[in-house]
Amino acid sequence: MNAGDLLGRLLAKDSTLWPLGNVSPTRLGWLDAVERSRGAIDDLTEFAKSVDAERILLLGMGGSSLGPLVLSRWAEGRPVEVLDTTAPGEIARATEDLSDAFILVSSKSGTTLEVHSLFEYCWSKLPDGSRYAVITDPGSSLDPPAGKAVRRIFENDPNIGGRYSTLSLFGLVPAALAGVPLPELLDGAASVDLEQAVGLGIAMAEAARDGRDKLTIVGPHEFGLWAEQLIAESTGKHGKGIVPVPVGDEAEGGADRQHLEVQIGSVRDLGREFYRWMVATAAAGVVMEIDPFDEPDVGAAKAATNEALADLPLPDEDGLPLEDLPAWLAEEAGQGDYVSLQAYMPYGFATALEDLRRRCRDLLGGMAVTAGFGPRFLHSTGQLHKGGQNSVVAVQILPPERSFDIDIPGKPYGFSTLIDAQALGDLRTLRQRGRRVVRVKSCNLDELLPA
């Protein structure tokens, strides 16, 4: 199928583009969301003006958080801070003083454990519904939230999946509150050369089929995280997948690599890149003969987490001695593989984690290495790790112990137990799927794989 034919069928929302039983009939609302969103600009702008707060705190996970994370870097007004973790240290830092905050609670399903836990905790500190708004699908458990009369509920189009939702209310509400110029953002999305975008997706899929399945993304870090989720969760299933490798501004090479560079110099460019990559990813799914809109393996780790939480206290899972990690990697990682560094730690370790990613890459002769924070990556690359090709070599990184805990209202456990249960649940799920995975414990990432 050529790019023109594929584009025509995509714009016609032809569900037969993807395998039988796909969920596209209820997931293609993003295709025309740009034009429909223009009608909401005035309302969103007026709402943003009415919110008297110096900072915006967004509680979300996955598709509800990574788009706003990118958009927040283009704020022309007050900052939007995304809280998409269960790490107690990060939660304590973000919520220490809520006196100047307006809180957005963002979840498509309304059932996301992390979002509910963060919402309950913030409400225990700031029980004032006028300081909250909710973004969710109609009829979810957050529409309205039980026992909480919030200032406003934004009901999104339910025919838009989370990772394709950045140009819908899930992205536009926080963007408006941050002062991002919405007309420019949507104009950029409308300017995409759609046939070129489809061609990009075809090329990505064909390269993966030919053995170049590691997609090096050169460009802004936050955009790389967004694109990583979009591509990994959309293509990593049924033993197939494109492995996105965000590398910032440092290009990387290898026989199993394909490369894409993203240049974003304005909000208009940002809107263009959001929409271009969504179209390309949907097209890649056609060539790969997979459904780019479902996430069949994400639920396994969630179920394993719930099982761990139902059997407290958590067992003390042994970790590999730090000095044995280089040898373990050298033995387990081979041609065509990639390493996934998974840090269940606060985001303050971001620079150290990126340095570790590069040391690991160099130790393994330039092998593709990805790095992410848990539980964020569970809603992103976690689908690829469990459902994609068995080429992942995973390294779980946990602190030896949590220095303190924060209680979760209504739960018999706190956030430190929750994040450790999420790590344990994913560890068990990866092992059940026959993936190579090891756990190490350290609060100093510089001591892992020393240069």
3D architecture notes:
With 451 residues, the protein is an alpha/beta fold. It folds into three domains: 3-25 and 188-288, Glucose-6-phosphate isomerase like protein, domain 1 (Rossmann fold); 39-180, Rossmann fold, CATH 3.40.50; 298-447, 3-Layer(aba) Sandwich (Rossmann fold). The chain has 16 helices and twelve strands. The strands form three sheets. The chain has a five-stranded parallel sheet, with helices on both faces. Strand 6 (214-218), helix 10 and strand 7 (243-246) form a beta-alpha-beta unit. Helix 8 crosses helix 11. The relative contact order is 0.13.
Provide the fold topology.
Blueprint: H1 3-11, H2 33-38, H3 41-50, E1 55-59, H4 66-72, E2 80-83, H5 88-95, E3 101-106, H6 113-125, E4 132-136, E5 152-155, H7 169-177, H8 182-190, H9 194-209, E6 214-218, H10 221-235, E7 243-246, E8 257-261, H11 267-288, H12 298-309, H13 325-332, E9 338-343, H14 350-363, E10 369-373, H15 382-387, E11 392-398, H16 415-432, E12 436-441
Parallel strand pairs: 1-2, 1-3, 3-4, 4-5, 6-7, 6-8, 9-10, 9-11, 11-12
Helix pairs in contact: 1-9, 3-7, 4-7, 4-10, 8-11, 9-11, 10-11, 12-16
